[in-house]
Amino acid sequence: MFNLVLKDISITKGTFPVVLILCFTNNMFFINAPAFIYIIVPPLIAYEYFKNSCENDYKYNSNIMFSSLPVNRREVVFSKYIESMLFLIFAIICTIVFTFVFRRIGISGLGVGAFIHVSKLMHLDDFSKLMNFKIIIMYSLLSTILFISIYFPIYFKLEYLKVRNIFALVSILICFVPILVLYIMGSENIYNIVKYFSGIPGIIANVALIGILLIILYTSVNISIKYYENKDLIL
């Protein structure tokens, strides 16, 4: 199983330039609202990596290869989920490092000024101030797990091309849904929500979150295994 994970990681290493582009453009856009960088970029990077992993499986007919190897189908499913979480951890580290370097360099100019104006126009800086690092990481973790929990059962049920078409707008949704939701709710309501969750003891909140994520993942993995074990891989 871990050999499958290593195989996918080695194949998707060409995605790294996309990581740099995502980090740079989002640092520009959210230059005055750094919280949104950590909310949006890690899930987006993780998505790009495991999407490319699935694309490579389709391109090189990996499913047919798996059927001729002593590889359990459960292992194939587990490897996809494990590598997705590794991609998320890698994405968070890349985002933190790149954002730190970007802000240390202190890029400025007419283009940056335009991004600052857009940020102020949408009041993103107000929302950013309401979020601490713990809430930001929790959101990245929750949003990515929710997405892969939906993505992989569909992927193992259907063919990659159909999944690609279904999730064609995912990148746009990841970018704009958090901003749209926060903008509609308003800074006062966001502040009340953050204040409420901040009042919950850390241990209780962490245990509750981990419990919810494990239930979601457990359900998703079992659905994916069921679909994949019943799938005809000889196409």
UniProtKB/TrEMBL annotation:
Domain of life, per lineage: Bacteria
Record-linked InterPro entries: ABC2_memb-like
UniProt keywords, alphabetically: Membrane, Transmembrane, Transmembrane helix
Signal peptide extent: none
Keyword set includes Nucleotidyltransferase: no
Record's keyword annotation contains Transmembrane: yes
Transmembrane segments: 16-41, 86-116, 136-154, 166-184, 196-218
PANTHER family, A to Z: MEMBRANE PROTEIN, MEMBRANE PROTEIN-RELATED
Stated name of the protein: ABC-2 transporter permease
